[in-house]
């Protein structure tokens, strides 16, 4: 189990990571950790994603875990042992960074085999592992190919296979799939998640893609200005972002004030069922949150654009604060200026707070 305990990283007067605490590994809710003297929350998991915009500190934190950045304060522990004096190459971590960092003088198989050779794995066993990983990352038969002849996406797949080859104690991935086409990325997300489960390998993954984080991780930690703004299970994160900043980063571009009573929220777009206590909240809307509905509130059509999922219709709704522009999904494109009725889709609305 990896424990990040109140870690800060500074560059001169700039604090890049601020008092971050996080647990990654195979531990159940309520487990006591003697190193911290505290109870691990139910966000402890085997696959954790660090999610946030550029400059939020997520890659710096990953590099600190790897031993590539010094800590200004705090501790990083693996199975209770402090890693402060353990160099990067002795931590037993597999690492995949955004640029791959392959060995140009080795072919594909040689790159994947590298970690196995350092651990003196018998050649036959190493060769079998290489072939297994070539199949996994979608590069069968390319073991003898020079890495310089590969595309950027292929090189990143080799880097992923190289990190997985020695079955590391922890896998660290910094935007590992960003160079891949969408179709291959979707396949590798599933394959990577499966192999992490099968081999019981914990992973800490950096990404700016919230869809990727949700698909791959058990727990998502959203970073903002070097600190954790929210850490939660993916489903909970989507439905209950803690702050407007987290909501906006997740794609909830429209925030509406709402009054909740008996799990029914009332706002400028009508009423919607929500899972939260009574009180005043904000509702977050993203594409798909608003739909055409005969019994909804009246709205004026401003424009319509066909998409693969239907027609995206921009409508204006009169409110006490003026006209509110939102996007609704429909099957056909109404005429500009036409009055339609819209309502909220409860499955696509977030409650903020």
From TrEMBL:
Its EC number is 7.6.2.9. The keyword ATP-binding applies. InterPro entries: AAA+_ATPase (IPR003593), ABC_SmlMolc_Importer (IPR050093), ABC_transporter-like_ATP-bd (IPR003439), ABC_transporter-like_CS (IPR017871), Mo/tungstate-bd_C_term_dom (IPR008995), P-loop_NTPase (IPR027417). Pfam families: ABC_tran (PF00005). Residues 17-250 form the ABC transporter domain. Keywords: ATP-binding, Nucleotide-binding, Transport. GO terms for molecular function: ABC-type quaternary ammonium compound transporting activity; ATP binding; ATP hydrolysis activity. The keyword Nucleotide-binding applies. PANTHER family: SPERMIDINE/PUTRESCINE IMPORT ATP-BINDING PROTEIN POTA (PTHR42781), SPERMIDINE_PUTRESCINE IMPORT ATP-BINDING PROTEIN POTA (PTHR42781:SF4). This is ABC-type quaternary amine transporter.
